[in-house]
Design brief:
Length: about 325
Amino acid sequence: MKTKNTKYSILDLALVSEGQTLTQTFNNSLKLAQHAETAGYTRYWLAEHHNASTIGSSATSILIGYVAQGTHTLRIGSGGIMLPNHSPLIIAEQFGTLASLYPNRIDLGLGRAPGTDRETAEAIRSDFMQAAQSFPNELEKIQRYFSTDNATSKVRATVAEGVDVPIYILGSSTDSAHLAAKKGLPYAFASHFATTHLDAALQIYHNEFQPSEVLQKPYVMAGVNIIVADTDEEAERLSTSLIRLIVGIFTGNRDYVKPPTAMTDDLKEIMKHPQVHQMLKYSFIGSKATVKAQVKAFMKQTEADELIAVTNIYDAHDRIKSYELFAEIMKELNV
């Protein structure tokens, strides 16, 4: 185990639970962020998704502003903005504005996936595929708009120039690892669902990392699914909502987050399915003692500088409690 402290953060999709309105969902996100602030979390990121009635974080920058307004010290950001969906100029303006309103608290995590289906991606931006292939160039545009050197350019994001907004590269494959290393930027890997390439991506990032003005040595964030409760049995019960979400993804029958049920033999069989098992490889579910042992092993495996936790369960109170228990775990591991 490393002696350095490993930071811990939250990734939120603003998932809509059955029977909840969007307003309630957004309020629950804010309440979670407020609890996270007192529990020692480093950052609270919101993910961009579209055309999904179960996900509320489609207007990501607006929701970031809402959460930032209701908190004080917690870093708030995107995990991530799917850059091919957007004009780099507009994103620079949005995040430059956010960072002026909430100084030293706004992060800009950037990904290249659409965060939706192909038809919706084309509705968002007709040249999406071309923009996705141009991701490195689009990233350079963002960096240029934030630079004071752009002040003499004909096209400027004046609200972004010289504003401090750290940029993170998000990835779920090895492609993004090469880019993050080349640019000398921090790297956040989506190992909470894309488990296959985690080790290879981190190895590439570390081996190819080139120091930059913003980062002198590699910085890795790794995503994990976390469900912590008083007992293993209770955590297992809460996880039934997550299992049904996963089934909905694989079958195309996406639905609101369902209330938890008893763990049935059928659900246990679903957990053993190769695709589901692989997707949930870095899902740590159980009591504090159980999850602590699993997280400790994951930290040793990845040597991540920061864990970003995803807790997709039905009830807002259970979710807050899980995150508070996870914070206790991290504090104990960091001693």
